[in-house]
């Protein structure tokens, strides 16, 4: 009988999770009241409607579900949803109009120092910051759509902002019109997978001091300055699209002070600069495609021991450019569509080394207005003679085994 | 006037040089487009043709043709036809021939292989360059009676616009590199029809690079509708002004 009681008590404890409905047609009309009534482990279903309840705080472990996309409105005065508990699920809400403030950074959804939070299938519209993870672990942000409308950098927050977190998964979100689409600062061991970040005012993706992360199969298109990865090591970048990032300081991918990273199978198309590298070391750039960019890669003289292997350079105005004469990087077995050599032994690699750095790329680096003369016959002549006898361009800037045919990427 | 144009055109066709020019252009364009699976190399070849071959052939052929038809012109002048009409018909005949040669030789492969703004821009600029250099040929052939001198002058004009001008601009650029000369550079391009055409094409061909810092200045001017109109007006002026100067001289000339 004693054992039976214990088992009974155990089951009653574990089965007590209740479902609470919030909505116009239900007994509980207010989301806040629903949360107060809910116990740890309960499910709170919010039915479609417009809820203007200021700052909603979730302070216990609950499943917070929206049915028919209920709207939580911050009325430009409040942070909308604050999560102060572990293992909370937020699913299916439309969260709009968070406040704007520069000290507290009010958000659509903010997680405060917690872990195992799941945020999915939400629509965030016109918020200052979208989703903010502060000092959180093991969280998943999935299938959310974020949109903002500001024009100035100062008036906009980041779409998905993670600070001092680890083991984060960011999957299949769409971020449009924020300052930075996804922002990582001191975030480690995290994965960014299948997101689309377009039309953000600053960067599509912004990494700072975040080691051991990977971003895979994302699309970054038409952002103010492309994607920036800075002061970081061990970052993997696979299968991403970097497209149409146009402007003087816009780069498909900006690498600054990066080490030991791997850039594999990405596509850089129609950017002003495909990759810009500054102070990077021991990076492998392999099997990427650089197409129709102004500059395929800009490798500053401060970079060392980088390997650029098996890439396709097609239809770029300049394949490579640099700002000095020091070359500590290696180029091997890339395909350059401007290569004019021959292959007598038919091993698929050109017999004449290729100098990817054109004289004119160096000239425009020093005198940008020389761009006006590009493709003029005069310049073509100068370029040709420089290719034969390099005098201004560093002669060790060379691909010794240029491929004759483009790689199928 | 139509009848004179017809006579001139049939004479040019019988002459076969323009036909050969058309054939060479078309072999060059088709083969360079077929060379690779992307159209980049073909476009570059045609760009070089527009900037280099088209001006040379247009100015040389037109100059030599004008000198050789001196007797025909004298014969026409003995008829009751206005001098203005004769000179205009010659101009229309020659420029139609050159434009058609370019259109058939390079324009059709362009439209087939690159049916977008780049191809269209190149076609338009190539035709304009043909007409401009025919007009310059009229000027050089009216300036002197001596055939050798006239042809020499034509070659000089071509050399100046195709090579020297860019060399001078490059020199200026490096001498004045410390000064904000970008806007001035935009103005200077107006002094060479080849440069005007080249920049028009460049803005479509290298659009990504042109979005950079200085590129943006050029794009702000040439890329806008106003800039586009201005540069086409300038190109047309490059055809109209030399031709009108030559016509005024022809009207008063003692032949």
- Give me the secondary-structure category of chain A: mainly beta
- The tally of beta strands of chain A, per DSSP, is 39
Taken from the alpha-carbon principal axes, the silhouette of chain B is globular
CATH superfamily of the largest domain in chain A: Single-stranded right-handed beta-helix, Pectin lyase-like
Total strands of chain B: 0
Count of the domains of chain A: 2
Question: Would you tell me the structural class of the helices and strands of chain B?
Answer: mainly alpha
Tell me which oligomeric state these chains represent.
Answer: heterodimer
| Strand residue percentage of chain B | under 5%
Query: In which order are the strands of the major sheet of chain A placed?
Result: 1-2-5-8-11-14-17-20-23-26-29-32-35-38
- Binned strand content of chain A: 35-45%
- Mean pLDDT score of chain B, rounded? 88
Q: Judging from the principal axes of the Cα atoms, what is the shape of chain A? A: elongated
Helix proportion range of chain A: under 10%
Domains of chain B, number? 1
Backbone CA Rg of chain A: 26 Å
How would you sum up the major sheet of chain B?
none
Taking pLDDT < 50 over at least 5 consecutive residues as the criterion, the unreliable ranges of chain B are: none
CATH class of the largest domain in chain A: Mainly Beta
Domain Periplasmic copper-binding protein NosD beta helix (chain A): 105-147, 155-341
InterPro entries (chain A): NosD_copper_fam (IPR026464), NosD_dom (IPR007742), Para_beta_helix_rpt-2 (IPR022441), PbH1 (IPR006626), Pectin_lyas_fold (IPR012334), Pectin_lyase_fold/virulence (IPR011050)
Signal peptide (chain A): 1-17
Keywords (chain A): Signal
